[in-house]
Design brief:
- The structure is a single chain.
- By secondary structure, this protein is of the alpha/beta class.
- Helices cover 30% and strands 27% of the residues.
- The strands form six sheets. Strands 1, 2, 5, 6, 7 and 12 form a six-stranded mixed β-sheet that branches. The protein has a five-stranded mixed β-sheet with strand order 17-14-20-18-19. A three-stranded mixed β-sheet has the order 11-8-13.
- The longest helix has 15 residues.
- It starts with a strand and ends in an 8-residue tail after the last strand.
Length: 416
């Protein structure tokens, strides 16, 4: 796109615009399991496609170069379809600075008549027409300067020391957060990137820093608070809501069920929910045969598809012989926590003709709450007989059914 005074000002020189989209990153902080974040689909369309459309719709660059990872050619083709045919596509480097240099080289070689270049992050799909026009107007007004869209910092800024104490309050009046697209004379920014690379400088975090390093002026342009870079899981959730008009995300509440049964053998007590209860027989099992905790362990693991108790504590492993089942339940709670879950409720029903459970119910609930790290009121233990029917009715063993309710943080991986 060639922009002159009819878009900018009456006497401003023409600006022939090129565009470099930086899309070579891996997006490791996003928490997405769909691959690099720039190819993640928002409301059915890839982020990089949405970003490119903003420029083609509003400023129509003369040529566009997309800098991608060497592994992502198929992802780019899938994201853009036929829209990819007019693009310059080149591979990036190990750092953003290196990737931008690759893109600038490719653009300058393919379109030598470009006077200015905008450099933009692929993961900023909400860049507005107003912001792009402000940048173009500034480029025409001051064609030799670098242009940095920026938003003044609104929050109070504190300086901390090595001990974690506040050492001062920073004057924020002149502080801004930097955005993209940043705009530069193509020949100047390319030469400075080449010089920085030749000097082994690789830690400049944006292109205005490269211009500053070279002693060139960078002018602030009013940024746009909506021009956010999508980085964390919450950013993608909010972006999806913005595009679809959704007002809220449904809570990720999951319920798991568990069932276990153990037969009686010789002994003088049974262990249920971690509490030893006197009885004329004991429950048989590789561990302490706590049928109630075993059922609840399976219920918790079910909420994040983490298998069952036998997968984590095989009966064939001698180290679990006689082990307290609280170990198994605590492990299941840890698996849930690592998967982003919070245990909300645990309910156990014990099915037995004997012994009587009622005198021990409060201690059982307290034990479960302690192991799970939740409030006592979120644990329930009930008991019933089998009306003398079946193996339980014949007093051959005890069965337990458990239900666990877990809330998972939306957008986080929840499989172990």
């Amino acid at each position: 796109m060639t922009v002159n005074h009819d878009v900018n000002n009456e006497n401003g020189p023409a600006v022939t615009l090129g565009l470099v989209i930086v899309a070579a990153g891996r997006g490791s902080r996003s928490g997405l399991d769909s691959g690099p974040k720039q190819y993640h689909r928002l409301a059915g369309r890839a982020i990089i496609a949405r970003t490119l459309a903003r420029f083609s719709d509003h400023v129509a660059p003369e040529r566009t170069c997309v800098v991608i990872h060497a592994d992502d050619e198929a992802l780019l083709a899938d994201a853009l379809g036929s829209d990819a045919k007019d693009l310059i596509v080149t591979f990036g480097a190990a750092t953003r600075q290196g990737s931008v240099l690759c893109g600038l080289r490719a653009l300058a070689q393919a379109q030598p008549d470009v006077t200015h270049v905008m450099i933009h992050d692929a993961a900023r799909p909400f860049v507005s027409r107003g912001l792009l026009e402000r940048i173009l107007r500034a480029a025409s007004d001051d064609p030799g300067a670098g242009l940095l869209p920026a938003v003044p910092i609104a929050e109070t800024i504190k300086r901390g020391d090595a001990a974690g104490l506040v050492s001062g309050t920073v004057d924020r009046s002149a502080l801004h957060t930097a955005q993209t697209p940043q705009c530069f004379p193509l020949a100047a920014i390319l030469a400075l990137h080449e010089a920085a690379a030749a000097d082994g400088i690789e830690t400049l975090t944006d292109d205005s820093a490269v211009f500053e390093w070279g002693g060139r002026p960078v002018r602030l342009v009013e940024g746009d608070p909506d021009n956010r870079k999508l980085t964390y899981a919450k950013d993608f959730e909010m972006a999806e809501q913005k595009l679809t008009g959704a007002t809220a995300t449904l809570p990720d509440v999951r319920t798991g069920n568990g069932y276990d049964v153990h037969q009686f053998g010789p002994g003088d007590h049974v262990t249920l929910c971690g509490i030893a209860i006197p009885h004329d027989r004991a429950l048989s099992g590789h561990s302490d045969a706590d049928v109630a905790m075993h059922a609840l362990t399976d219920a918790l693991l079910a909420t994040c598809s983490a298998g069952d108790i036998g997968d984590h504590f095989p009966p064939s492993d001698p180290q679990w012989r006689g082990a307290a089942s609280a170990i198994f339940l605590a492990h299941a709670a840890s698996v849930v926590c690592k998967a982003g879950g919070t245990v909300m409720n645990a309910d156990v029903s014990i099915i037995a003709e004997a012994p009587k459970i009622a005198p021990y119910r409060e201690a059982m609930c307290a034990k479960l709450a302690n192991v799970l790290g939740i409030d006592r009121k979120r644990c329930s233990v009930k008991a019933t007989t089998n009306e003398t029917m079946g193996f339980v009715g014949r007093r051959e063993g005890i069965a337990a059914i458990a239900t666990a309710t877990v809330v998972y943080r939306t957008g986080e991986a929840s499989d172990e």
